[in-house]
Fold this protein.
Amino acid sequence: LSKQQRLNLKLNFRWVASGKSFTSKNFKLFYRFGENTEPKIGVSITTAQFKKATLRNKAKRVCFNAAQKYYDQLPKSLNLVIMPKAQVLDLSQIELETEFSNAFSNLKTD
């Protein structure tokens, strides 16, 4: 995802995390609707889940790649933070994309 499509500031992550959430088997989504002209996505990794930096970076890459496939289908005012769990690295790309698709369809737009 390009820089304009990502959440970058810690303040933005906190604002989104104070909104609604959806928990899946392999990740947790925090979302909030704002006044954006395009969806913004961020990935938050905890060192409790991923001890090594290489695993944290890989988890971010995998999540951004899966989210990018469905980016055009997301509501324009959506702000989304993805918090992957450790087992996300064990999934194939297709399984992860399927789970993202199911999760994105469950986001409530109120």
Summary: The mean pLDDT is 89. Residues 29 and 82 are 5 Å apart (CA to CA). The chain is about 35% helix and 20% strand.
